[in-house]
Fold these 4 entries.
Entry 1:
Amino acid sequence: GAGVSQSPSNKVTEKGKDVELRCDPISGHTALYWYRQSLGQGLEFLIYFQGNSAPDKSGLPSDRFSAERTGGSVSTLTIQRTQQEDSAVYLCASSLGNPGNTIYFGEGSWLTVV
Amino acid sequence: QKEVEQDPGPLSVPEGAIVSLNCTYSNSAFQYFMWYRQYSRKGPELLMYTYSSGNKEDGRFTAQVDKSSKYISLFIRDSQPSDSATYLCAMGKSNFGNEKLTFGTGTRLTIIP
């Protein structure tokens, strides 16, 4: 597709279950970001991948959160033992990875933990 | 204190009015300043970006940055109902496009026909 694709678009899960969220960046984009958007909050940075460099994981809120990027393209964000406070929109974004390049966002995965 | 502060609104104005949206920030390392527009249940889309202080105009939109006051603004002229959305300011320190951005909470704007 032409844009950043995320799946699932909506996910309802029970507290304590693990969830996986997937992101397909725009073809050719080397930089990939995960952000979280909670009600009434701005976008909160989670993790950043750039090419083959070690990811910047400084925004991950706890060790229940992890992400990987396989083959420099698709990324999966995993949340283990979900808690109700994990309910949020998880947004993926990508860019060409050079200064001045636009960062394009997907439509997000809406996660509800019940 | 958050690095970036933005009034969450909501803000309602009549069609045709001039809209002013603002953010303040505390970290003087920010050099790139962006405005994103986010429609309901959609991802944010880049509207404007500026580097350092100054003004930038694009059609009905004008972005202003005052680094001395650590204050940025987005003006929308001749506002239209299609401008109804949440507007997020975002800031980067050096390599916009190659680094994490810091976002404001967003201002929800409604243009009343």
Entry 2:
Amino acid sequence: GIQVEQSPPDLILQEGANSTLRCNFSDSVNNLQWFHQNPWGQLINLFYIPSGTKQNGRLSATTVATERYSLLYISSSQTTDSGVYFCAVSPPTDSWGKLQFGAGTQVVVTP
Amino acid sequence: DVKVTQSSRYLVKRTGEKVFLECVQDMDHENMFWYRQDPGLGLRLIYFSYDVKMKEKGDIPEGYSVSREKKERFSLILESASTNQTSMYLCASSPGAGSTDTQYFGPGTRLTVL
């Protein structure tokens, strides 16, 4: 199956800093999503981005499908950005939208 | 807004017990999923369902079964709980548009098997 690698595994930021999270995937995809899991365990969908660039407030994401990677940018980080960020993908051969998740990036934003 | 609810946030069971985890979604979604999350492994798919009474195995179905008698409800069953099933269990649903679907998650159930 498709492999998903996220880096870095852990990230500690001071409030106000910017950061970039990376997701590499081993095969072509037609579904790529970024999720944020808050410290209480709830996963929230941030972006559906199989290609191109999207922005939502202080967060933005870029996927370069031909080179098989996606980047999530966090600007002016806040303590509420803490949690685990997951990248998940689905190949074109999948009919049901089953997602393959990476191991995640644990982000801690300190005041 | 899509709402996915799970029956318990925390659950403690003993080895050998039969365990039921319930998931309900209120958006008439076709697809529902059960994942388990373990540190360093991300989320792994246990089972999914694309219609009432229809189910497919995911990547790690051993030791689990599922039931979907109504469209809005998807149950995960541990027939005989074991300590290696101690984990966070997450339910998700998606509209059923196919491979480009967005998934919506419940709050999770943290299960401990003693």
Entry 3:
Amino acid sequence: GESVGLHLPTLSVQEGDNSIINCAYSNSASDYFIWYKQESGKGPQFIIDIRSNMDKRQGQRVTVLLNKTVKHLSLQIAATQPGDSAVYFCAENMPRGTGNQFYFGTGTSLTVIP
Amino acid sequence: DAGITQSPRHKVTETGTPVTLRCHQTENHRYMYWYRQDPGHGLRLIHYSYGVKDTDKGEVSDGYSVSRSKTEDFLLTLESATSSQTSVYFCATGGRGNQPQHFGDGTRLSIL
């Protein structure tokens, strides 16, 4: 799910299909990960999170998988709906003395075809 | 997020002018953050606050200053705006450790 240059990776899926969005993170010391959804003109919206001591977490229609061996996260959206069309990006947290230091991916643009 | 309000939502200004962006939260969160979002980059941290009057720099802090005189408000100031600071600025609040950050809807700032 990381972009090259100015263009986001894109994913187009048919309504009702499952979507999988991928993200490579950079630091093996990161201990917490979040997926965000961002619609045009809006701020990022929290979807689901996972701690580094887990490899899978499920929410409503969403599942996050964490593979620490290859530093990879994925977001699975079941039965994708038109309202799921947005940019999705991951964030990794590295602990820091006085707060969190989150690093954000550039995102993947998901388009749901009705 | 209904609990985080950014103002203004849009601003156009000229190079060399001072600019202040405001973030107001009703969540009573201890931590507040300012990010900028640019094409080809993920959100990048400018400054953050871990309490009233307690702030620290992020990865892109040059040219920016912040202040936090009360829990609810976190101000971002560009002392002398440059065209490279044209961006969308997001405020976030959150807790420490394994807790998500929640974002406002952003300020689109254009510096001509």
Entry 4:
Amino acid sequence: GAGVSQSPSNKVTEKGKDVELRCDPISGHTALYWYRQRLGQGLEFLIYFQGNSAPDKSGLPSDRFSAERTGESVSTLTIQRTQQEDSAVYLCASSRGQGNGEKLFFGSGTQLSVL
Amino acid sequence: SQKIEQNSEALNIQEGKTATLTCNYTNYSPAYLQWYRQDPGRGPVFLLLIRENEKEKRKERLKVTFDTTLKQSLFHITASQPADSATYLCALGSARQLTFGSGTQLTVLP
């Protein structure tokens, strides 16, 4: 597709359930980022993938959060045993390369609501 | 710890005026700085990049400055229009990470 695609666009779940969020980056983009945005807040870095390098997981808030990426394509962000404080918009972005000013292209996000 | 601060209050200006948004940072030495625009329900969209060795960049009605001594970037929108109303985010970049500020919500009044 022409842009970064995320699914689902909205997800409502019950506390304690696991959720899986998907991101399809722009074809050919080697870098992929996940951010979390709470209501009225800025973007909180979660995890970064660059090609076949080990991902930078330094932003993951707890071991309930994990992410995978298949080569340079689809990524999934998994949140286990969801808590109400996990409610937020989860944004995925991709870019052509690593750092050095490469602009990020964002998807529209997944709005996660934990009841 | 690293800290990025943008205009703490929402900014309202009259159509046709110049909007000036600030981005201040501490405990950080970014290699570059980017500005993004975010509309409700959408992901941020890239606007401008400025590197640490550059003082100023322009793109159409947009201008950004970067002062590494003051640790500050200013983002200007000249001849503002109601369509410029959005949240504007600054982001500081280094080798592998791009760290975002919390944004400034700009409203241009007709």
